[in-house]
Write a structure and sequence with these properties.
A hairpin with a 2-residue loop joins strand 5 and strand 6. Helix 4 packs across helix 9, helix 11 crosses helix 18 and helix 12 crosses helix 14. It is globular, with a radius of gyration of 23 Å. Helix content is 43%, strand content 18%. It folds into three domains: 95 residues, Leucine Dehydrogenase, chain A, domain 1 (Rossmann fold); 126 residues, 3-Layer(aba) Sandwich (Rossmann fold), CATH 3.40.50.720; 160 residues, Rossmann fold. The strands form three sheets. It has a six-stranded mixed sheet with strand order 2-1-3-5-6-4. With 429 residues, it is an alpha/beta fold.
Length: 429
Amino acid sequence: MNKYCVIGEKLPHTMSPQIHSMFFKSMGIEGEYDVREFSREEIAGARGELEKYDGVNVTVPYKQTVMPLLDEISDEARHIGAVNTIKNVGGRLIGYNTDPYGFSAMLRKNGVDVKGRKAVVLGSGGAAKSVLYALTIMGADVIYVRRDEDEELSGYSHITYPRLEKDGGGYLIVNTTPLGMYPHTESCAVSEQALSRFTVAADVVYNPVMTEFVRRALNAGCHAFSGLYMLVAQGIGSQSIWRGEEIQTQDIDPIYNALLRDYFAENGGNIYLTGIMSCGKSTLGKMLAKVLDRQFVDADEYITQTAGMSIPDMFAKGEEYFRSNETRAMKELAGRRNLVVAAGGGAVTKQINCDLMRSSGIVIYVNRSVENIVKDVDCSGRPLLSGGADRLYSIFAARKAMYEESAHFIVDNNGGAEQGLENILEILK
């Protein structure tokens, strides 16, 4: 059995054992993963302890401290100036850094292509170095933002925070500072106005999932997400190095989704049910809310109540008018906790709605065949079905990928409501 560990100074809340244990289980392999705390006085003499393991993860504050203890350092780790992964090859300790891999995987997961585009990185510490390295490899035009007293990073252009606030902008902005990290969750390095001049906003902070940076970015209209996927991907990247084999995205996603489920269960995150109209979201949502002792909210009913207008009347003003009210409502619901929300069938057509749901809870796609829905759907009061129920086929075809890609989990609802509820509860275990 291979033995691995994570080393650091204080590690009471590290997710590394959970990530790697899930990986062992999913891949059907035997492995042991320990947590090893070292004092600052102990770490300099820890070489012998490191040699006891086949692989080691390194977290703050020892990503630089361990480098003199190693026999070899990879190119990316040397460039970044930090090691977060060590591989034991016959007693030779080789250092790597998987943070660039984790960050790149997070961008790909969220459909972000930075090639030839301007990317702005907040911060100049170790995380910033990893992100700048990754963005450069991906072909972005990079610049970082520093305070006057911060370290200046050789080889990269920089601007100040006042300059960013005044007129800075671009395609992607990345927060690599610790601002917004639990327990200081109210802090953020930049204003909403500055964020409004970007298309995408990525935070490397993962606790909370909805950081103040992400919240402001969503309010500013950005495609925004936290760093939890990066955390999982960089951890699994270590496994790729240790095992000498490439790890696929499909190996990362289930672990990420399970961690997110557990996180929101502990922190009162909402449960969002998505899917085509009449797939059973409201029926299942009411049943689920009763079982979990949560408040149920039908998003369409919430929109009409808060807007003081029926859905047909809103559509009479144009579908975009309805969608803007839908996003307003989703922002309000994302700010609440412990809800079960039946989202509107078209909510997933707006990226911001998907981001709001995924940042404030878990998203479950209720999959029911269109053939079954067409048999009993009531077209009255549904502007998109004014041409008849058969329109559902084209609507579903246009949205199917959106439902699947925005969801953390997919449940089958073709066997009746009781079975559908059972399928959801199985996911939530």
